[in-house]
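Trying the structure run again after the queue cleared.
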Amino acid sequence: MPRKTSAAAKWESLRKAALALPGTWEDHPWGEVVVKVGKKVFVFMGLPDADTVRVTVKLTEAHDHALSIPDAAPAGYGLGKSGWVFLPITSVEQDLLEECLEESYRNVAPKKLIAELDRA
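Done. Tokens:
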């Protein structure tokens, strides 16, 4: 039987994947973790020890699919209207989380950095 990955471990793995993308850096507005490319946030990470561990990403192609995941929802504060989606880490496979993370990056990053990612 495969070992279940803890929410905190999945969160940390996703954080590392976000920071491995070209031109990214971590910031801590509002006491939470976000990862930015340039000055733009492309993933709201929240905190790994929160009651509900979830990330928020900006999706276009995978938007409807992401919203079909149990406990996923459009992001609050009006962000949902722009394609931002809350994804509960525990309900989503790591591969899908990383695909959503990359899509969010591509929706926010400058073309020069996307081209760098494509070359890698």
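The chain has four helices and six strands. Worth checking whether this holds up in the mutant runs.
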